[in-house]
Structure formats: structure tokens, C-alpha cells
Amino acid sequence: MKILVVGGGTGGTIVANNMARRLHHEMKAGKARITMLSASERHMYQPGLLYVAVGRMAPDELYRDQKGLLEPSIEFHVDPVETFDFKENKVITKSGRTHQYDILIISTGSRMMPESIPGLAESAETFYTEESAIKMFKRLREFQGGKVVITVGVPHKCPMAPLEITFMLHDYFKERGLLDKVQIHYTYPIGRVHSLENVAKWAKPEFDRLGITYETLFNMKEVDATNSILKSEEGTEVKYDLLIGIPPHKGMEVIEKNSIGQSGWIPTNRNTLNMDGEFKNVYVLGDTTNIPISKAGSTAHYEAEVVAENVASIVKMGVPVREYDGKVFCFIEAGKDKATYAMFTYNNPPDPKEPTQAVHWFKMAYNKLYWSSVRGIL
Amino acid sequence: MSEQSKVVDARGTFCPGPLMELIAQMKQSQIGDLIEVWSTDAGSAADIPEWINKVGHEYISSIEVEGVWRVLVRKKK
């Protein structure tokens, strides 16, 4: 059985390692083979960029060598896929190589699209790449006061990040003794300060207590860089001195080029994680799916565990054994030294508790434990 | 309705939620497209028309069948 994993991010790495452990004997006996194709020889811990942007992590802490994260039995190539041929059970890579498969797992992730909002890329600081997070921190260090506007595109990666960066900026300016010279203003696309109702119920009084102002039902339309004005689809405007943008994102270009999914999101069954349609030997993970849940590493992690167990069961018994229940677990940093979390499934909404220092330190520990997590040890 | 609508199936999902899914779908739709949001969140029946009216799209209808709200809208701009 040839199992091919396309993508070496959180989902791809966890699914490959988990399968390799479950199929140890079959792989040793030559009955199963796992191959991963990735666009990069390095693996980035993306949530760490949030900390780089406020000077709390160094960029080199975010990377590991991808090959070193994988079980030695997994064949790894830095050679991204350019063509998917589902009828022939094969992919063709950038180097021109063809890889046949019996089971295909697509976990190619997403890409930031700040350029989809006129003026945003040129005007806003952001923290979704190493380069932009460093640039944002340098800008913060130089900032001496004024109106800081945090604005949120749709759809965006990691729905907790807009809240987290807002609370972290508050504490950053407080630490620098600048709070009396800084007004923090938060805009959000829907009619409350967070998409999760219970998170919004907690965050709104926190904003009020900290003096953070907000405007809801605000969807970025364009940025007038000359006059430092952010305009919304809803017809309102806000002036800024420092603009922090949470950019819209899309699935990867290869998905669009192969006409597999609109905007790069592949239509995926929310329980089996099979790609919709006739090719039942194709699974999709993480940001790559069109499932209407959080695009976050946690989502990819729980989905990867389900797919790995099912693929191993298919190899051993011919049938899958589990369904994905929509589980997501998200830490929420509520400043520089306290945090809470939201855990939910398709059937159970989250109920975040009061932020504590203990949860913050657990998140700080998880920033290191992530590497054990993707290896499949944790 | 004979005209084909795009369905945003946001049943049983909390984050980013039905309205955010609709906003995302609006961005990748053409002017004149019909979009139907399926939601198990009762708040969607109020949230979606509020946003639609504020932005200037067209709110067409909202019905509830066995706990699922189906909100139909049209992209106007």
C-alpha cells in the first residue's frame, strides 16, 4: 500500500508520523510505504510568530529541520506537487517526478493574501511571516504614541490571533509606560468582538476594563495610506497612526490551478475527511479543507489523528474506524502573563474560563512541546 | 426556487461561525449570485440580515426547518 502525504506542515507531519508508528510492522515487511512531498526542508511553528511580533520569541526558535521531525521510515522529498491526477492515482511534482499512490493525503495549508485588500499590504504591520513579524516588532519599538488600529480580514487564519495580539499589544505598551499615549482600537467583521459567542462575552468586558475601543460589523474594504484611513465595506472609516492587519488568506495556488477547490479550499466531508466526490482514497487535512471550522494547527492536529488511525485501519482491516467530531482546542493569550482556552466540537460550544497565569505558562510550555507533538510523541 | 443558490453549510459549527462563512463566500461570489446559509445557531436568523442590510446586499428569506435556519441572500455589489 503506497501512502502519499502532500504537505509538511502540522497536519502532514502528524498524520505521517502517526501512520508510521501504527504501520511499523507493515512498513518493515514491505506491505506499506509512506512518502511525504513538501515545499520546504524546514518546518515552522507558525503560532510563534505572534510572540516574535512583540519581542517575546526569536525567529530561529520557530524552525526545525523537517526531515528530523519525521520517523526514519518515512521517505521525504522537498519537491512540491504541481499536478494532481486522481483518476490515475498519481501526482507530478515540480521536478517532473511522478508519484503513484493508493491513498493520498493533501495537507498543503494556506497563504496570506494582504494584497486582496487595496492598500493593506503597503500600510499595515502584520505577523504571519518571519519577515513581517520582525518588521512589526521594529515598528512597535519606534512607536511613541497614537491610535493603534487592529483590523481583521475574512477569512483569516487562527480566529484567536486577533484577540491575542490586541491583549498582547496592550501589555506591550503598558510595559513601555506608553499606555496613556496609546489608544487601542479593534475592528471585527461580525456583530460581536469574537466569532465564538462565549469568547466574545468574556472579551468585551475585558476590552472595556482595559480601555480598548472597538467597532463591530467592520469588514476591511481598502486602506487610504496617504491619509492613514481604513475604510469598511459597511461605509465607516477609522483613522490610524499604526495599523495592525490580520490579512485574509486562501488555500494554496496548486489547489486552485488544479481546479480542486474554490479559493484553494478543497470540498471535504466534515466527518470522514475524504475529499468530496468519487475518489474515496483521497483525504484532506487542516487549512486545506473547506470545512467551516477554525483554520488552526489544533484543527489540523485532531484531524490528522483521525486520518492516521483510519488509514492504518484500512491497511490492516480494509475499513476505517473513526470519524472526526470537529474537535478544536485553542489557547487564548490574554496579555503577556495570563491566558485561557476554548475547546469545542461540532456539537459542543466552548465555555472559556477566566484567564490565569497557569494556562499562560502551559501555552509557553506548549510552544516548546509542539516539536514533540508533531513528532507524535505527545 | 428555480434559480440555483450556493449553499454555505455551517451547521453545527461555532468558529468562525455562519456569518463569517457567509462573508467569506460573498467575497468569492459574483454580483447577482444567490447564497443560502445553513445554520444551527438561532442567532444567525438575526445576525445575517443585520449585516446584509448594513452592507447593502439583498436579504431574501429565512426559514427554520427542524432546528436548521436557512437564510437566503443575494450579492448586490
Give a verbal description of the structure.
The complex is a heterodimer of chains A (378) and B (77). Chain A has 378 residues and is of the alpha/beta class. Chain A has two domains: 2-109 and 252-327, 3-Layer(bba) Sandwich (FAD/NAD(P)-binding domain); 113-249, FAD/NAD(P)-binding domain. Helices cover 31% and strands 24% of the residues of chain A. Chain B has 77 residues and is an alpha+beta fold. Chain A binds chain B through residues 116, 154-156, 159, 189-191, 195-197, 217, 219, 233-235, 248, 262-263, 291-294, 326, 328, 342, 344, 346-347, 349-350, and chain B through 8-10, 12-21, 23-24, 27-28, 43, 47, 50-51, 54-55. Chain A: Pfam families: Pyr_redox_2 (PF07992). Chain A: This is Pyridine nucleotide-disulfide oxidoreductase. Chain A: Residues 1-291 form the FAD/NAD(P)-binding domain.
Gross geometry of chain B: globular
CATH topology of the largest domain in chain A: FAD/NAD(P)-binding domain
How big a fraction of the residues of chain B is strand? 25-35%
- The largest beta-sheet of chain A arranges its strands as 5-2-1-9-19
Distance between the termini of chain A: 27 Å
Order of helices and strands of chain B: EHEHEE
- Stated plainly, the CATH topology of chain B is called Translation Initiation Factor IF3
Organism (chain B): Sulfuriferula plumbiphila
Family (chain B): Belongs to the sulfur carrier protein TusA family.
Domain UPF0033 (chain B): 8-32
Pfam families (chain B): TusA
Give the gist of this structure.
Chain B: This is UPF0033 domain-containing protein. Chain A has 378 residues and is an alpha/beta fold. Helices cover 31% and strands 24% of the residues of chain A.
What is the topology?
The complex is a heterodimer of chains A (378) and B (77).
Chain A: E1 2-6, H1 10-22, H2 24-28, E2 33-38, E3 42-44, H3 49-52, E4 63-65, H4 66-69, E5 75-78, E6 81-85, E7 90-93, E8 98-100, E9 103-106, E10 110-112, H5 120-123, H6 130-142, E11 146-152, H7 161-175, E12 182-187, H8 197-210, E13 213-215, E14 220-224, E15 229-232, E16 237-239, E17 242-246, E18 249-251, H9 253-257, E19 282-284, H10 297-317, E20 328-333, E21 339-344, H11 357-375
Parallel strand pairs in A: 1-2, 1-9, 2-5, 9-19, 11-12, 11-17, 12-13
Antiparallel strand pairs in A: 3-4, 6-7, 7-8, 10-18, 14-15, 15-16, 20-21
Helix pairs in contact in A: 1-10
Chain B: E1 5-9, H1 18-27, E2 34-39, H2 44-55, E3 58-65, E4 68-74
Parallel strand pairs in B: 1-2
Antiparallel strand pairs in B: 2-4, 3-4
